[in-house]
Amino acid sequence: MDDRTFRNAMGKFATGVTVITAALNGEVRGMTANAFMSVSLDPKLILISIGEKAKMNEIIKQTGKFTVNILSEEQQDLSMLFAGQLKEKQNVTFDWVGDQPVLPNSLANILCDVYNTHVAGDHTLYIGKVTDIYMKDGDPLLFFEGKYRNLASHANAG
Ligand code: FAD
Ligand code: NAD
User: Fold this and answer.
1) Do 125 and 48 contact (CB within 8 A), yes or no?
2) Which positions ≥6 away from 22 have C-beta within 8 Å?
3) In what residue span(s) does the Flavin reductase like domain sit (predicted)?
4) What is the ipTM of this complex?
5) What burial letters (b/e) apply to 129-144, b meaning 16+ CB within 10 Å?
6) Which residue's C-alpha comes closest to atom 40 of ligand 1?
7) Smallest Cα–Cα separation from 63: which of 108, 100, 117?
8) CA distance 53 to 135
9) Cα–Cα distance between 143 and 60 in angstroms, integer?
10) What is the CA 110 to chain-centroid distance, rounded?
C-alpha cells in the first residue's frame, strides 16, 4: 500500500488539533499534533504519538514532562506555526505552570508526566499521567481530509 492511500484513509478520521509544549533549560518548543487520545480514568492517562524525526522527542525524553494544548478555532495560525507550515518565524508568548509552558487561550491545557513510552515503527507513543488541567470555553479547531475546518462551516454546509 502506498503512503498516500494510508494518509488519505487516516484523514477520514476527523480530529481536533493540539500543540504539544515542553521546555528544556527554560527554552520552550512547540509541535502540532493530532495523534492524541484519552486512555484511562484511574489513573488519568492520555496518549500522544510523535514522529522519530521531531525535535520534541529529545526534550520530552530529557524532561519527562509535556503539555497537550487543545486548540480553539482562533488558533489555526499557531497550529501552522508549530507544524512548520509558516515561512516566517514568530514570537509566541507562553504561560507557565511551575516549570511547564502552556499555550494561552487554548480550550484545554493538559499537563503530564511521562508514564510510559513505546516505540512503534517511525513514531514513539508517549503515555502521559495527567497532573493538572486548565480549561476555557470556545469552539475547537478541527482537521479532516488534510484540511483545517471548524464547527460553524459544517453546520452552515448542512
Ligand atoms: P520543529 O520543526 O522544531 O518545530 C516546528 C515549528 O515550530 C518550527 O517552524 C519552529 O520554528 C516552531 N517553533 C517551535 N518552538 C517554537 C517557539 N518556542 N516559538 C516559536 N516557534 C516555535 N507530527 C507528529 O509526529 N505527530 C502528530 O500527531 C502530528 N500531528 C499533526 C497534525 C497536524 C494538523 C499537522 C499540520 C501536523 C502534524 N504533525 C504531527 C507534524 C508535525 O507538527 C511537524 O512535523 C513538526 O513540525 C515537527 O516537529 P519538530 O519537533 O521537529 O518541530
Ligand atoms: P495528511 O493527509 O498527511 O494527514 C492525514 C492523516 O494521515 C493525519 O491526520 C494522520 O492521521 C495521518 N498521517 C499523516 N502523516 C502521518 C505520518 N507521518 N505518520 C502517521 N500518520 C500520519 O495531511 P497533511 O496536511 O498533508 O499533513 C501535514 C503534515 O503533517 C504532513 O507532513 C504529515 O505527514 C504531518 N502529519 C503527521 C502526523 C503524524 O505524524 N501522526 C499527523 C498529521 C499530520
Assistant:
1) yes
2) 28, 29, 56, 59, 60, 63, 65, 66, 67, 100, 101
3) 10-150
4) 0.94
5) bbeeebeeebebbbbe
6) 33
7) 100
8) 31
9) 25
10) 10
Q: Tell me which H or E stretch contains 81.
A: helix 76-81
- Of ligand 1's listed atoms, the one at least distance from the Cα of 143 is 34
pLDDT at 156 over 60: no
Architecture, CATH, for domain 14-146: Roll (2.30)
50 beta partners: 124
Name 10's bridge partners. none
For ligand 2, residues with CB inside 6 Å are 7, 10-11, 34-35, 49, 51, 83, 143, 146
